[in-house]
Structure formats: structure tokens, C-alpha cells
Amino acid sequence: MEDAKQIVKLVITGPVNAGKTTMVQNLSDSQVTATDVAATDHVSQLKSMTTVGLDFGILKIDETLELHLFGTPGQSRFNFMWNILSKGAIGAIFLVDSTSDDSLVEMTKMFKYFQKHVDLPVVVGATKQDMPGAKSIEELKSLLNLGDTMVIPVDARKKEESKILALTLLGNALVDAQEEDEDYEDEDYEDLF
Amino acid sequence: MNTLVFLRRMIISQQPARVDYTVSNQTKSIYYDRSGFVGTPIEVAQALREIFKSRAVSVINDVDFSSVGTLRIFAPQAISSALAGYKFDAETRAVLLSFTMRLPPLMVRLFPMNRYAFQDNASYMKMHMQFQHNGVFRMQHYISQADNSLDEIVRLRVMMATYILGLIAPLSKQSEKSHNATQRVYGNKTQKTPTTRGKKVSLLSKIIMRIRGL
């Protein structure tokens, strides 16, 4: 009998206009399902289209494993979605627009909720670092009260940078998992030693 | 990173060998025996740097040493010289980080690398102190705790030197378990079944490899 396909989730979240949809597209190898519509509220001043549902992409890992990428809507009023999204997720990437004070305020709310309600490895990507008025990584860490959470500058439009951010998150998650894993076998490392 | 694996095995076995490697479509060789690498310090350091970057490396053990020179550079000296100020491009960095991710919990041996002018000796000493303090050393933590990109380069160089020279080795499961058992008494960690943990590591490793290849 054929083995059931295993699905794990990676959540990409953060305030409006930070690059979440683009990052989902960069990390997916399938056609991304986007739920962008014309923005009508204050978001329309930032961009013409915004995500109202979920961006969704699939990265096929092998025949038995798929990574499903979810890009969430960028408003803190959608925080309730974490209850569903965090089930079976391996981590979360927060993206924040380094140039926008509104983005920082929204991010603070979203991250506070995340820290209180969600137990997942997390990394923060600071986008638009090349734009005038962008806050430095140190400023962002301090303003957002991120504690030990890693903040990495990222240009979400560039695939390589999206990959590095995802790999950082997954690398940290792997270290944590290895740390918990006392069940490793010496044979697993025979090719290295 | 097979290059490091080959060098480590060759140095630890201390058997006469020849390393053949390809750089810019040209095949070169360097000889090694128990006394060290054959050549002048500059030649050996240059060859080792080329080997670090080479994608095609092989070690031949059945070697005729009759025609090679008599000058030898002791392995710790040779590795120290090759790594002095050594920097790498983004691709090599990615390969080294990927290699680091695969290393198991380690023990760190103390060796007087300062005698061989190892420039990153202070960082190596800190690594050994971490091992002594925790009873286990995790290279992944050590590298990820770098303060900045320059510090990361130093730490990766230390990883290369200690790995190649056999100064790090897998910690025996028994000793790590006894250390973890002590931590658990005080740590009050949430316990998960070993199967779930092993599965998570395997799953994450697969995803990392896939994303790297995108």
C-alpha cells in the first residue's frame, strides 16, 4: 500500500506590505494561490492589492513529503488564524517593513500575540532595508522588543535572500530538534568520522 | 564537504598518501606521510587552500615516495598556515554551514595549536571551554552564536582546523546521555518520545536540503 503523504506547514506572516506574498512565491515550486484584492481601507495608500485570505504555495520535498507555505493577511485582526495555522507547522517567518512606523506598530501587536499563544521556532526578516528612512536591525530589535529572536535583513523580491531567511529558521529548528534528540545513532555520522 | 572528510581521515590514519585534486581544470597532487605534508610551508599552505575549494579530491594510499622531496610540514602547522586569514566566497560558506549542520554532539580535545601559530587559537580555546562547561559541544550553536560575519568566518575556520586535525570527535552516546540526564532533573523539559524527535530531525534535514537546491 502506498504511504500517506506527509504535509508540514511554514507560516509567513507580518504586517501589510512587507513582502509575504512575494516570499511565498519565491519558496514555492507550484503555482501560488493568491487571494489578493484591491485594497480599500488605509492599505490602499500603501499598495493597490492586498491579501484577504491566505497565500498558499507548495514545495514538494520528495515523494512522501510536502511543505505547504501559508502567507497570512497582514492585519493583527487575523491573529485568530494562528490556532489553525500552527497545527503541524515547523516554524514562522515574520516580515516587517523597516521603513514604516505603522508596520512596526502592527508587528508589535502580532508578535505579542504570537509569543503568548504560539510555540514555534521563529525568525524575523526586516525588508526594505535599502530604502530611505529604513530602521537599522538594532533599532528594530529594540523597538519591537523581540528579545532573543533573530532579525535578518532581507529583500523579499530576491529568491536567494528568501531562501537564506527560511534556511536560518529551519537551521535553528534543526539544532533545537537535534538538541532534544538523544536517539541519534553513531552510524548516522559514519561518513563524517 | 568531502574535502574535509578526506583530509581528516588521511591525517588521522597517518599512513603515506597522495591527495589528487582538481583546480581550474588542472589536476594537482600533494604528498603526505606521518611527518607531514611534502613541500615548503608556502607550497603546502597554497595546496591546502586549493584543496579546500576543489570539488574533485581523492586520496591515494598506495604511493611511491622515492621521488618526492624531504621537506615536511607537520599537519597542525600546515593547517594553521593554510587557514591563516583564509576567507571564503558565499558558495563555500554555504557548503561549510551545511557541513556544520550535519555534525553530531561533539567532544573537543585540547591541543597546543598556539605552538603552530594558529591565528584563531583564542576562539578554539573558547570552544574547548564551552565543551568543558557543558560536557558536550554543539558546533551548530558555536557557529550561530557568531557576533558578525567576520566572527563567523573565524568560527568556521576553527571548525575546519579542529575537524581536519581530529580535535573534535563525536561524543559517545553514553556520556551525553548521563549529562542530559543531569540536566533533565533540573531542566523540567517537556519530554517527547525518541521516535518523534528523530523523525523531526530527519524531516527538517530533508526540507533544508530541498530549499537549498531551489
Give the ordered list of helices and strands of chain A.
Answer: EHEEEEHEHEHEH
Chain pair with largest interface: A-B, 35 and 36 residues
| Low-confidence runs of at least 5 consecutive residues of chain B | 177-192
Q: What's the oligomerization state?
A: heterodimer
N-to-C terminal Cα separation of chain A, in Å?
Answer: 37 Å
- Helix and strand content put the structural class of chain A at alpha/beta
Q: What amount of the residues of chain A lies in strands?
A: 15-25%
Uncertain stretches of 5 or more adjacent residues of chain A:
none
Terminal CA distance of chain B reads 19 Å
Per DSSP, the total helix count of chain B is 9
Report the portion of residues of chain B in β strands: 5-15%
Order of neighbouring strands in the sheet with most strands of chain B: 4-1-2-3-5
* Number of helical segments with 4 or more residues of chain A: 5
**Overall shape of chain B:** globular
Strand segment tally of chain A: 8
What would the average pLDDT of chain B be, to the nearest integer? 85
Largest sheet of chain B: 5 strands, antiparallel
Helix and strand succession of chain B?
HEEEHEEHHEHHHEHH
Q: What percent of the residues of chain B sit in helical stretches (DSSP H or I)?
A: 40-55%
